[in-house]
Amino acid sequence: MQEYKNKQELVDEISKRAKLFIDEFSDIPEVDKNKLIEGVERTPAQMIAYQLGWINLILYWEQQEQQGITVKTPHPNYKWNNLGGLYEGFYKRYEEHSLQELCSMFQESEQQIIQLIENNFTNSELFHPGGRKWASSTSVNWPIWKWIHINTVAPFKSFRTKIRKWKKLTSVENDNA
């Protein structure tokens, strides 16, 4: 897994990967936002909803902890062994939004996670286990940066590959129609 020297390096990587990811959606027609293509397990709208869901969960965890509320990860209504249900909740939450709205919400969430990193965590809190109770609430006891990385940079990369595959397969499908 990629590691970071400091919070600026993490912020820079989030910004870079988020832009590359979200730019992939600029040429997808609105009518195709919910199109499921064989070989790609999510629609374009679901890919963005997934990202929004996880980023907003991290923001929620931090907000809850700052209010003195014990955080239940991943979500009060879902356990770690029911991530599929959690993802379905993400999709349902964002299903009424246009692709353009989803992209705008993604960019807003990206800025919120960057502000969280810059303003809420010291380097010690960010890079050492135990920086927050929510980050230590599972058996893995990861530092905060790792939670952020696996829910931003890592899926930004993997979903960029998936949306590119989706676009390629959609193009082939349209050519054969």
Could you please describe the fold and organization of this structure?
This protein has seven helices and no strands. By secondary structure, the chain is an all-alpha fold. Helix 1 (7-23) packs parallel to helix 7 and helix 2 packs across helix 3 (83-94). The termini are far apart. 31% of the residues are buried.
Roughly what fraction of the amino acids lie in strands?
Answer: under 5%
Principal-axis shape equals: globular
Number of continuous helical runs = 7
Average pLDDT, rounded to a whole number, is 93
Compute the number of strand runs: 0
Quick summary of this structure?
The chain is mainly α and 177 residues long. It has helices at residues 7-23, 44-66, 83-94, 99-120, 123-127, 144-151, 153-176.
Keywords:
177 residues, mainly alpha
Please describe the topology of this protein:
Layout (H helix, E strand, L loop, with lengths): L6 H17 L20 H23 L16 H12 L4 H22 L2 H5 L16 H8 L1 H24 L1
